[in-house]
């Protein structure tokens, strides 16, 4: 194996001492893992295991990395997840492999419950890199929920993001109960996010376009780019957790599904 998805090193951080021991049934997480980055998948799994969400949306995810993370979550932490991939391109530089069989890159969803009705859509225009969204139906708590995971065009490409949201928002609107997670590469008061704000609310009750200055930052460059949008679901509590293994922080939220 070559590239970022090469086998993990032997010397990695230990599991956090306060790690959750069982999956939290109403907890959802979003995390851009950073790619290409050189962090080990053992460390990435430990970060996820510390909060043990029922559903996790990962962005900048190599399929091989996600599979290893899933294996480490089970073998090292006793947390068992199903996985669905939203690959949008095959990329050797980002995901390793061999030149004639590079690794898949895009989104992934891990869920403690089985997932059905998977849809993987690549946006007509990804901007400087292919982008898309992955959608599945799974259970959050004891309710069936449609879960979307997306990564929008890079921060300088607002016009492209606007077109991507015009493709995504009508699909989310079909569901009375939905969760949209992802790295949107835009701050809350960015004009292109307006169609999403009409459909759903962010898990942070203090974070709205008019209150953008009060939103917790989720990136190393002190911007909020990561969201858990909720439609027909009430947030109970959320937390942004600083991590040293990505340039994006982990965002997890506990939900009340009525």
Word description of this protein:
It is a single chain. With 258 residues, the protein is an alpha+beta fold. The chain has helices at residues 41-49, 63-77, 92-95, 158-172, 194-199; strands spanning 24-32, 53-62, 82-90, 97-98, 101-102, 104-111, 116-122, 132-140, 143-151, 178-183, 201-202, 226-231, 234-241, 250-256. The strands form three sheets. Strands 3-6-2-1-14-13 form a six-stranded mixed sheet. Strands 7-8-9-10-12-11 form a six-stranded mixed sheet. A hairpin with an 8-residue loop joins β13 and β14 (250-256). α1 (41-49) packs across α2. The chain is globular. The model is unreliable at 1-7 and 9-18 (pLDDT under 50).
Jot down its keywords:
5 helices, disordered N terminus, 6-stranded mixed beta sheet, alpha+beta, 258 residues
- The 3D shape can be described as globular
Helical content, roughly?
Answer: 10-25%
Q: What is the string of SSEs from the N terminus onward?
A: EHEHEHEEEEEEHEHEEEE
Sheet-strand content, in percent, reads: 35-45%
Give the structural class: alpha+beta
Concise account of the structure shown:
By secondary structure, this protein is of the alpha+beta class. The chain has helices at residues 41-49, 63-77, 92-95, 158-172, 194-199, and strands at 24-32, 53-62, 82-90, 97-98, 101-102, 104-111, 116-122, 132-140, 143-151, 178-183, 201-202, 226-231, 234-241, 250-256.
């Amino acid at each position: 194996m070559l590239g970022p998805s090469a086998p993990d090193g032997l010397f990695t951080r230990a599991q956090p001492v306060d790690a959750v021991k069982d999956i939290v049934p109403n907890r959802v997480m979003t995390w851009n893992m950073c790619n290409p980055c050189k962090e080990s998948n053992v460390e990435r799994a430990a970060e996820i295991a510390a909060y043990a969400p029922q559903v996790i949306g990962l962005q900048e995810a190599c399929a091989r990395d996600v599979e290893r993370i899933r294996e480490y979550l089970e073998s090292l932490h006793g947390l068992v997840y199903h996985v669905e991939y939203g690959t949008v391109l095959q990329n050797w530089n980002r995901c390793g492999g061999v030149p004639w069989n590079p690794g898949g890159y895009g989104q992934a969803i891990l869920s403690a419950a089985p997932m059905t009705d998977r849809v993987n859509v690549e946006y007509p225009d990804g901007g400087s890199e292919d982008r898309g969204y992955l959608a599945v139906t799974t259970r959050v708590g004891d309710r069936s929920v449609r879960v979307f995971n997306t990564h929008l065009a890079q921060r300088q490409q607002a016009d492209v993001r606007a077109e991507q949201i015009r493709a995504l928002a009508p699909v989310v609107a079909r569901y009375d109960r939905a969760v949209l997670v992802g790295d949107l590469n835009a701050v809350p008061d960015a004009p292109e996010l307006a169609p999403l704000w009409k459909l759903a609310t962010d898990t942070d009750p203090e974070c709205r376009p008019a209150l953008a200055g009060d939103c917790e930052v989720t990136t190393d460059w002190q911007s909020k780019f990561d969201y858990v949008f909720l439609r027909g679901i009430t947030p109970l509590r959320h937390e942004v957790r600083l991590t040293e293994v990505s340039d994006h922080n982990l965002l997890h939220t506990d939900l009340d599904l009525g």
